[in-house]
Structures are given as structure tokens and as C-alpha cells.
Design a protein that fits this description.
With 285 residues, this protein is mainly beta. Helix content is 4%, strand content 35%. A hairpin with a 6-residue loop joins strand 12 and strand 13. The radius of gyration is 40 Å and the shape is rod-shaped. The termini are far apart. The model has no long low-confidence stretch (mean pLDDT 89).
């Protein structure tokens, strides 16, 4: 039964007394809704109960209710029901988004303004929303929310991921063991970005050189290692700088700046010591 008006001396019926009691207890007649609904004047003193598996709204407009009127709102469905300010103003210290089994009371302070007093439920509290920051996904403003690692941004311990432009400080890798890429060369070869940690062989009838470029061409990180060896062929491979006046190469070879691999199947390591500065060590002459 909607809000009633009585006159002096009127005798109330049992139904009217029951309705007054229900209204005083924030009950009143209950109207069941299953779709978006706009409150009407007859809803004063009653309960509007929404039930829908999807999201719904209950809209509040002006000039329908008087100051002091109340409307109880319940959400019984699985979908979130939002108390929406249409032409009226609706204020609350709680939330206007009601999860299943949440509710509250609209108390009108004027014909155009109301306060929504949300009933306390286990899911209510000071937190009105959780926002997923950088590296996280999920969050929400109602109901049970969760956060997860956004693996497109943040590395985790369980997802197979490719790390790009990351520096690992003192890593300890137990499995799998790190392996290097092998590349066979038959002519002079200049190291390029991506050759770090790899191994190269040389096979040519004539002497060919493994060339170390300047930092201006490929600025390998200090500490970079590149491995070379002489697999076969009559030509004795050498290691040297593309631009000796810019890049310094040192070794124990007879010619420090251009050491030779000593014999077929011998190898050496080229290691960057500083900017444009390398050492070659191994089975050299």
C-alpha cells in the first residue's frame, strides 16, 4: 500500500494499520521489478525489490515525493542494481551500486533531493572501489572484486613470458642451462648486436678476420663475451678491430691488437672491458 493521507476522526481499517506498521518498519507493500525502473509517487512508503541476473537501474526524479517520504530499495538479483539520480539529487555515504541481497532506504529531504541510507551488509564498508594500478588487472566498484597480475605488463613466476630490454642483476638460473647459438662463417665477419654470448667458427683457405665494431656502430654492453674458433681450412683466422684507431684490442698474441687462433680447432673469447676496449684470450698466437 502506498503512502496514505488520513482525516481527523477517520477510523483506520486493519489493512491500513498493517500498512502503517510495515512502513514504520521500512517495509510496506513490495513491488517486484525485473527491469530498469523509474520510481513513481505511489512508491512512497513501499519497497521496490529488483530481481535480474543482469545490471539494472532504479531512477529517482523530482516532484514525486515530499520531504520525509521514504522508499525502501532491495536488490535480490545476481546483477548489480544502481540507484540512479535522474532529475533528482541523490546523496549517500555508502554506495548507490547494490550487489545481490543489498539494499537501503531513500529518504527525501525535499521534492528534488534524497539521501540513500544503505543497509549495512558484509560487503559494505569504507572502501567504495578498487582500482587496478600499473601492472595489475581487475578491480571494481561493487561486490566481491579481485586483482591479478597483468602479464602483458608485469612478469610473474608462472606465466611463460619474453623479457625485452630488462637487466638481470646477478641471476641464478638452475634450469634450463643457458646455451649459445653457433654460426659457421667462411668469410670475414663483423660482430653485430645479438651476437652476444654466441660462438662463431671460421673455415677458409685464406686468412679471414673476426671484426670488432666501434661503439658507434654496435655499442655492446661492458662485459659482453663473444666466442670464436678455427674449425678447419688453411687460412689462420685473426681477431681485430674494424677501426683500430677507435677500438682497442689487447691480447697475448704476437700482435696484441690482431691475435691469431693458434691451430685448427683452437678457440678464443672476445670480452668487452670498457667503451671501445676489448681483450681476446684463449688458444691464440
Amino acid at each position: 500500500m502506498a503512502k496514505q493521507t488520513f482525516t481527523t476522526g477517520q477510523v483506520l481499517t486493519a489493512a491500513q494499520m498493517t500498512s502503517l506498521q510495515q512502513t514504520a518498519m521500512l517495509g510496506g507493500d513490495t513491488t517486484a521489478k525485473v527491469a530498469n525502473y523509474t520510481l513513481v509517487a505511489a512508491d512512497a512508503g513501499t519497497t521496490v525489490a529488483m530481481s535480474n541476473a543482469g545490471s539494472t537501474t532504479i531512477t529517482v526524479n523530482t516532484s514525486l515525493f515530499a520531504a520525509g517520504d521514504i522508499v525502501t530499495i532491495q536488490n535480490r538479483g545476481a546483477g548489480v542494481c544502481t540507484v540512479t539520480a535522474g532529475t533528482a539529487t541523490v546523496n549517500t555515504s555508502g554506495s548507490l551500486l547494490l550487489a545481490q541481497y543489498q539494499g537501503g532506504v531513500l529518504y527525501f529531504t525535499s521534492t528534488s533531493a534524497a539521501i540513500f541510507f544503505q543497509f549495512a551488509t558484509p560487503e559494505s564498508g569504507d572502501i567504495t572501489g578498487v582500482t587496478a594500478g600499473t601492472g595489475l588487472s581487475g578491480g571494481g566498484t561493487s561486490g566481491a572484486v579481485s586483482l591479478a597480475i597483468d602479464t602483458a605488463v608485469t612478469a610473474d613466476l608462472t606465466t611463460a613470458q619474453t623479457l625485452t630490454n630488462k637487466t638481470l642483476t646477478s641471476p641464478v638460473i638452475a634450469s634450463p642451462k643457458i646455451s649459445s647459438t653457433y654460426s659457421a662463417k667462411t668469410a670475414a665477419y663483423t660482430f653485430v648486436s645479438g651476437d652476444e654470448g654466441n660462438i662463431f667458427s671460421m673455415n677458409n683457405a685464406a686468412t679471414q678476420q673476426f671484426n670488432i665494431p666501434t661503439d658507434a656502430t654496435f655499442n655492446f654492453a661492458v662485459g659482453t663475451e663473444i666466442n670464436v674458433f678455427w674449425i678447419t681450412g688453411a687460412g689462420q683466422p685473426t681477431v681485430g678491430a674494424v677501426t683500430p684507431g677507435t677500438t682497442t684490442v689487447i691480447s697475448t698474441g704476437a700482435t696484441s691488437a690482431t691475435p691469431k687462433l693458434r691451430v685448427a680447432n683452437s678457440g678464443a673469447t672476445c670480452k668487452k672491458l670498457a667503451a671501445n676496449s676489448w681483450i681476446v684470450f684463449g688458444d691464440i698466437s
